[in-house]
Amino acid sequence: MVGAYFWLNSAPPVNILFITLDTTRADRIGCYGYGPAQTPQLDALAQRGVLFERAYAPAPMTSPSHTSMFTGLWSPEHGVTTNGRDGLAEDIPTVAEALSQRGYSTAAFVAAFVLNSRFGLNRGFDVYDDNLSAEQTTTDQLHQSRDGREVIDSAVDWLTEHHQSHSSQPFFCWVHLYDAHDPYVEHRDEFGETFAGRPYDAEIAYTDRLVGRLFDLLKQQKIDDNTLIVVVGDHGESLGEHGEITHGYMLHDSTLRVPLIISDPRRPALPKKVATPVTLVDLFPTLLSAGGAKVPGDCSGQSLLPALNGTPLAPRTCYSRTEEPYLQAFWSPLQCITTERWRYVRTTKPELYDLSNDPQELVNLFATQPDQARELEKVLTVFESGLKMRSGTNVAISTEERRALESIGYAGGTSSPTNSPATDAGSPLPDIKDMIGAFNQLDEATHLMGEEKFDAAAVILEPIARDVPNFLRARLNLGRCRMRQNNYEDAAHWFKSALEIDPHSDRAHDMLGFSYLKLGKLDLAAQHFTTLLEIQPESENARLFLGEIAQKSGDLQQAMRYYEEVLQINPGRTAARQALDALRAAQGQP
Ligand SMILES: [Zn+2]
């Protein structure tokens, strides 16, 4: 869209470069006070712009957090509450749509499958580069992320083309870098021994170099004086604090406090730092205002642009939540509010921290300051009662995609909790603080499975699958290990036990059906694939294996119908193609 006429009566529009750094803690960056950091590019950006000392993610997960940034809504309001499952409903406006309507040229370059276009953030982008294929080694192996270098290469190409051919049109360019997500590497090719034993710091230094390439390009093109730059983390990483290794299960500064730097070269940037707590929900109205678009009245965020001129921001309540403990194991989900001084976390065993005196959140004051806790619980209740809750859309993903998500610990299989967080049918749900060790073991096993070390993974999984109540994913993963060990009897045992926890788990029905098929128990296999079809009407696997069962039972016409249906859904499903061709050949058909 060419929208130059939009600007006739106003100042020339500003380009907007929006960079999201996955899994990046604020306190691991030089300008946030971390001595060992090597982040010269971000440090210099903070010198040119404004650094928000206390910016909080609304969720410690990639999709929910990004969706809040792009919509100005809290996660229960936009309905994208977990990775790899929920999509953004069509009628919720996004930053890219609003800026596109204002005449902006829009492009996005994302590094992870969890931000694939099917989850809905592509809306409003002229170009949405979510192509991870350069990393693929085989056709059936889907990678869940790509190296930031490839993301930057694509963004540089687009920015160069835009500069050469459409420079009269402002751009909104979103670049997402996933490198700081685990597993971390030391990048010895870039930094030698500098980060030996500190791979997370190495990933952040690597990311800093990558964003520097974009900053250099803007300078070369002489548009750095008319490009607003926002750099923000989507959530942090616990790195072992509070017993959590990665992110997603708990709510503390380690996973909620992220870097946020905004540089607008057209503004004097009077303050260098803003200490007022802000939330990433505020980025939607900030980006819209920067691009001259109208902010919808029901937006839950507030624009941060006044802070760039030195106008103090009103103190606000920052809300965060995570469903992951519930989705993975039916343990209590968590909600929290962060104020200037306090953090209150609602869960089965609530937490209260005095952030001004205990920034590391080491001392839970819930028992010793009950009045303060009660007050904040009331604030949280009132806040949540004002949310306009809605669901995301259910996004279909293929078996290969699901496997890729599972390899990084995502994609539960359960339905979301109702908003009765800490109890289920009257009895309290287990608290993550008591269970985090089991989650860490699950993560470790998941990594081993990613490296095809199924024997070692099974050793870790067996005790937690057996002893930890309702640990759905441990049971599913142990079943998967047993399948890979060719022990289908035991695999079937674990998938059956997973169905006792969640009778609607599509993964459990899928893999139990497959195990029975391998054991020659065709009737039982057919039952589970039929149930899978009811839960997941688009399932390729259910049809493929129902086809195989029909074929083994001698009903060749029915088998062919199933294979044809698979190919209608996914023309690239080789197994169905080969089976169908073989059946047709046997019957003398072309
Ligand atoms: Zn993330």
Feature tags:
590 residues; 4-stranded antiparallel beta sheet; alpha/beta; binds zinc ion
What oligomeric state best describes the polypeptide chains here? single chain
**Average predicted confidence as pLDDT:** 90
The helix tally amounts to 22
Q: Give the fraction of residues assigned to helices.
A: 40-55%
Strand order of the largest sheet: 6-5-7-1-8-10-2-11
Query: How much is the radius of gyration in Å?
Result: 25 Å
Bound molecules: zinc ion
| Overall geometry | globular
Spatial separation of the terminal alpha carbons: 48 Å
Low-confidence stretches: 1-5, 136-142, 411-424
Number of strands: 19
- Sheet with most strands: 8 strands, mixed
What portion of residues belong to β-strands? 5-15%
The secondary-structure class comes to alpha/beta
What does it look like?
With 590 residues, the protein is an alpha/beta fold. It has 22 helices and 19 strands. The strands form 5 sheets. Strands 6-5-7-1-8-10-2-11 form an 8-stranded mixed beta sheet, with helices on both faces. The protein has a 4-stranded antiparallel beta sheet with strand order 13-14-15-16, covered by helices on one side. Strands 9-3-12 form a 3-stranded mixed beta sheet. A hairpin with a 3-residue loop joins strand 14 (334-338) and strand 15. Helix 16 runs parallel beside helix 18, helix 17 (488-501) packs antiparallel against helix 18 and helix 20 (540-552) runs antiparallel to helix 21. The longest helix is centred in the middle third of the chain and has 22 residues, at 199-220. The two termini are 48 Å apart. Residues 1-5, 136-142 and 411-424 have low confidence and may be disordered.
